[in-house]
Amino acid sequence: MNATSRFLAILICAAGLAHAAEPPPTSAITVAIHDSHGLSAASAEAHHLEIILFKPHTHIHLKISNTTQQALLLWRPYCPEGDDAMCIEFREASAPDKVFSAHTGYSYTGGMGIPKVLALAPADDLLVNVDFLNEWVLPFSMQADEIREMEVRATYRSAPLTDERQKSLFGSKPKYLVWTGESVSDWKKVRIINRTGSKIAPKP
């Protein structure tokens, strides 16, 4: 190998190392679940989340975080686009391909059906109440006093307005330039405890 060939080989090797050292791309938005005790899996005992179903308005939190150094325009919860973006997913460890998806169960009336936005500040969080006995629909049944061991994760999938919805609401000129994309947390162990005293069934 002559000097020129050796020099090119060194350049190619250096370029490869530099590329390998680059951090993997990350989403501008991350999501996490904080359980009935207010803890994330990182702080929960044995990294095991707990969801305690007791009465309406006892809830867990879905945390949506802006990881960037600039404000991001997001769909606000309690409007169709904001609620459609958020999802809590469950699965049995023994059947990982069967996923149960939980969303809000609102009937949007009046102003609730109009798209709304918020500006999430740099490195800030949005905490969303997730109430499986009231506003959110638990996607599986539980017997009175039943305890289920499952896995859980949060997902956030933000989509722009469709052309048809944009035109019907605001005309042809774009109204909102919201962040669009997907963020999915890792699966975490969760213990779901029914303390309501009665059977819980998914709402129709």
Explain the overall architecture.
- The structure is a single chain.
- This protein has 204 residues and is α+β, with helices and mostly antiparallel strands.
- It has helices at residues 3-21, 80-85, 163-170; strands spanning 29-34, 49-53, 60-66, 72-75, 86-92, 95-102, 117-120, 125-130, 147-158, 181-184, 188-194.
- Strands 2, 5, 6, 9, 10 and 11 form a 6-stranded mixed β-sheet that branches. The chain has a 3-stranded antiparallel β-sheet with strand order 1-3-8, with no helix packed on it.
- Strand 5 (86-92) and strand 6 (95-102) form a beta hairpin.
The percentage of residues in β strands lies in 25-35%
The succession of helices and strands, N to C, reads HEEEEHEEEEEHEE
Can you give the mean pLDDT?
A: 88
Measured on Cα atoms, how large is the radius of gyration? 22 Å
Multimerization status: single chain
Q: Measure the end-to-end span.
A: 73 Å
How can the largest sheet be summarized? 6 strands, mixed
Number of helices: 3
Fraction of residues in helix: 10-25%
Uncertain runs are: 7-25
Mass-distribution shape:
globular
The class by helix and strand makeup works out as: alpha+beta
**DSSP E strands, number:** 11
Concise description?
The protein has 204 residues and is α+β, with helices and mostly antiparallel strands.
What's the structural blueprint in terms of helices and strands?
Elements (H helix, E strand, L loop, with lengths): L2 H19 L7 E6 L14 E5 L6 E7 L5 E4 L4 H6 E7 L2 E8 L14 E4 L4 E6 L16 E12 L4 H8 L10 E4 L3 E7 L10
Parallel strand pairs: 2-11
Antiparallel strand pairs: 1-3, 3-8, 4-7, 5-6, 5-9, 9-10, 9-11
